[in-house]
Amino acid sequence: ENIWTLPYLTLANHFKFEGDILTVNPTGNGHINDTLLVTTDAGKKYILQRLNQSIFKEPKNIMENIENVLSHLKAKLEGMPNVDLERELLTLVYTDSGDCYYIDKTGDFWRSYLYIDHTISYDIVPNTEVYRSCAKKFGEFQKLLSDFDASILHEAIPNFHNTPVRFETFLKTLEADPVGRAASVKEEIDFLLARKEDMHALTDKLEAGILPLRVTHNDTKINNVLVDADSKEALCVIDLDTIMPGLAAYDFGDCIRSGATSGAEDEPDLTKVNFVTELFESFAEGFIGAVGQNFDEEEIMSLLMGAKLMTLECGMRFLTDHLDGDNYFKIHRENHNLDRARTQFKLVQDMENQWDELTAIIKKFIVK
Ligand code: ATP
Ligand code: MG
Ligand code: MG
């Protein structure tokens, strides 16, 4: 018996699960939603998730995005040989009333997926093979959705990767300097101000029609890819809450930002934080190989800028929160957000120092 079973049994029973529910237990390492594993006496397993409504203000829109994208992916994958649909794609479980979510008495918002068994997800990149395999999955995700009209999707979190807007917010916070920290972080502030022109490098190209609007995942950490426990091959992209219209460079960039590094995101000792070129290369190989000729050269070359800008943007958000008095990201020690900002700026600096080499790596994988 566990504490989750009784209160959640009634709730879980609204979903069309096969068999009677045996257990309901917390599972996974997610930071945003509450994730439970349901088992039944028919030997079935399901994921039951409570959406974090303080982040996702319009949960019905999130579910509409997810349903649309999953049905497109399903139609595509069904036509391909050797695809195990229920392992390679999330499958929503519906409620008795035919909805893909259930709102309980307290207003909490729940949804369910088939549990994909015998998988692992990595919080830290273990080696180049796994990273390349995850990159391939994110690339395939882009490729399979390249004929999906991204403009019909809801913006799950408005202006999520709108770097110029994030820069404006930074400037406003800097000017207000609400907790008087600006003077103590002049070096970091100058780092951002010196890169003012970079901030709009990608959005300008989107507006000019040079880069296409695509379906983007927007949370491309490798722990959002389930990997087969035996073969260690990436199987399935999960965590689709932040699917939105955006640029492919955002998804590529965020996975490089979070994965191609030798140090933790909040490592205070910057000598331990280095950009890892071999990881970058494996990821680029997997991703660009998978998108193939669905991307033109301009878009493939934008991926490197994506890596730099996603890292710069993330560091800027940490620094903004530090200047603002730590209201957004949870902190566990003094100057935690400042440490986080510094690791990101270190990675940006490393990328800039090797820009020509990184450009050559990307070029190498372009399929002509
Ligand atoms: P994040 O902090 O990455 O935003 P989250 O709170 O949004 O995470 P998910 O990533 O959707 O939650 O799920 C949390 C974890 O639960 C996953 O990392 C994975 O380990 C596990 N998980 C989620 N869905 C499934 C599934 N369908 N099959 C197996 N495991 C799953
Ligand atoms: Mg996740
Ligand atoms: Mg998530």
What features would you highlight for this structure?
Phosphorylase Kinase, domain 1; binds magnesium ion; 12 helices; 11 strands; alpha+beta; three-stranded antiparallel sheet; six-stranded antiparallel sheet; binds adenosine-5'-triphosphate; 368 residues; Aminoglycoside 3'-phosphotransferase, Chain: A, domain 2; 44% helix
Overview in brief:
This protein has 368 residues and is of the alpha+beta class.
Give structural notes.
By secondary structure, this protein is an alpha+beta fold. The chain has two domains: about 5-115, Phosphorylase Kinase, domain 1; about 130-365, Alpha-Beta Complex (Aminoglycoside 3'-phosphotransferase, Chain: A, domain 2). Helix content is about 45%, strand content about 10%. It has twelve helices and eleven strands. It has helices at about 5-10, 60-80, 85-90, 130-145, 165-175, 185-195, 200-205, 250-260, 275-290, 295-325, 335-355, 355-365, and strands spanning about 20-25, 35-40, 45-50, 90-95, 100-105, 110-115, 120, 215, 225-230, 235, 245. The strands form three sheets. Strands 1, 2, 3, 4, 5 and 6 form a six-stranded antiparallel sheet that branches. A three-stranded antiparallel sheet has the order 7-9-10. A hairpin with a 4-residue loop joins strand 2 (about 35-40) and strand 3 (about 45-50). Helix 10 packs antiparallel against helix 11. The longest helix is centred in the last third of the chain and has 28 residues, at about 295-325. The protein is globular, with a radius of gyration of 21 Å.
